Amino acid sequence: MSYCVNCGVELDPTASVCPLCNTPVMNPKAPVDRESPPPFPLVRREVEPVDRRSLGLLLTGMLGAVAICCGLLNFLAFFPQVPWGWYVAGAAGLIWVWAALPFLVHMKFRYCLAADLVATAGFLALVAGLVEGWFWYLELALPVIGLTSFLVAGLAYCRIFHRSRLTTLLVFLGITAVYLLGLELVLDYFMEGTYHPTWSLIAAAVILVFGAIFLTVRLRPRLRAEFRRRFHS
Ligand SMILES: [Zn+2]
User: How far is the CA of 4 from the centre of ligand 1 (A)?
Assistant: First the structure.
């Protein structure tokens, strides 16, 4: 058994240099064993990174196969009078846009979100068409998707124009308040046909207080500098 003369690490009999500090091993009483295989590989290899495109194509194939198989099963064998194959195909399409499309096409995050929202609206439209439930689609699903798009667009604006963290926070708070008020409006009209804002008003009031605090910080240079120092923004 040899030890490195430089760092003292215990050496394998096959080591001709110290694996830690690269000092040549010289021990006249225990020459380097050049016959046995080394305990670890000498060539450094790296795990091949997963090819995004292949992964996207694999997902596309899997989802396509599921949609086609279920469609055939539905129309040829199982309950042809109930179009359940369409639901599966629609869900496969939705998952494809959400999970596979970002691997196949290099898209900016905001375009991915926009595609996700359009796909969700499309899938819900398919369900609404199949169950003849356009009223909930038009009065509930579509307005909620529209409101969510508004939220996403506001956040995208902050990212595109590289606004400071404080401005982003203010925009986010403002959008969230409008979003919650809009959500209660949509839900109220859908369920009761009238509008009596309660929880969204409370939430908006709390957001307003925080917004006022942050706006004060934003407008006062000294406070702003302090905020920047603390939050590195
Ligand atoms: Zn060493």
Answer: 5
